[in-house]
Amino acid sequence: MMYEDFQRARNYFDAKDYATAARLLAPIVADVPGDRAAVELLARAYFHSAQLAPAERTLRRLVELDPSDGWAHEALARTLERQSRHAEARPFRALADAMGVTPAAQVDVSLTAADLA
After folding, report:
1. What tens digit of pLDDT does each residue of 51-100 get?
2. Which of 4, 52, 67, 100 is the most buried (most CB within 10 A)?
3. What is the CB-side half-sphere exposure of residue 41 using CA atoms within 13 A?
């Protein structure tokens, strides 16, 4: 069942319904917190749906799971910067740069009135 739920969440993510993908992924990550693929997809879904506090928590978890993941450091830096926490972002940006990660391109944020309720 969990695999099917993950695939369904991935389908919502691919359809750019990031908020729904995050809602489906959160219980999966809660049940299997060490599943790197699920944690990364959840972090991406939170980031793309402008849920910055949960994105930050999830990206910090991803960095703990795989400290050599330059993308995770870059995404965490971007998440902190989007919250105007530039000083906190600097070490993560520096690590990403040292790992050869180029800054990510700007992303579209998907936010609907239903997400605000």
Report:
1. 999 999 999 999 999 999 999 999 999 999 999 999 999 999 999 999 98
2. 52
3. 28
Contact 43, 55 (CB under 8 A): yes
Confidence of residue 102 (pLDDT cuts 50, 70, 90): confident
Count of residues in the chain: 117
Q: Is the pLDDT of residue 108 over 60?
A: no
pTM: 0.83
Q: Distance between CA atoms of 11 and 87, rounded to whole angstroms? A: 36
Q: How far apart are CA 30 and CA 45, in angstroms?
A: 15
User: On the CB side of 31, how many CA atoms lie within 13 Å of its CA?
Assistant: 11
Contacts of 44 by beta carbon, 8 Å cutoff, 6+ apart: 13, 18, 75
Tokens (6 digits) for 37: 């693929």
Task: Return d(Cα 117, Cα 114) in angstroms, integer.
Answer: 5
